[in-house]
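_Per-residue structure_
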Amino acid sequence: MPIQRQALVADIAALWELRTRAVRVSCASHYAPQVIEAWCAAAPPDRLPRLLEAGGGLVMEEGGRMLGYAILDLETGELDAAFVDPAEQGRGIARQLLAALDAMARERGLHRLFLSASLNALPFYERAGYVAVRRETYPHRSGLGLESVFMEKTLP
């Protein structure tokens, strides 16, 4: 049975490896191979340790194996990341992680969450209560402009 725990700075390498697998598999249907390669080659963002130290990251594990993770900037309400191992998709892991982040955000007094969603993830975020605001080109740190959709969610 999966367990949820706080993501730690010590988890960054494992988080990034999972994220890279997920991007290669899940995003390939919506982005060109050269975009996927540049996206996957990018190093973790400099702000990642700060977000984890602030308590905004959650990991779902089973038998000591990381199944997925999600990270929320608890100051701004930006959903920074939500990735599930491609072999574990469809089990409700990301949904559970987002629900836990929603609860954390409410405890912090946040009333609005937002993100820049990859095109393949739009249906998932819509089911999680996010609303598409506009299409945009996200300035990825790899130098790419990733086609995405800015979405937001009002917390009850």
Observations:
- The chain has a mean pLDDT of 94.
- The CA atoms of residues 68 and 84 lie 4 Å apart.
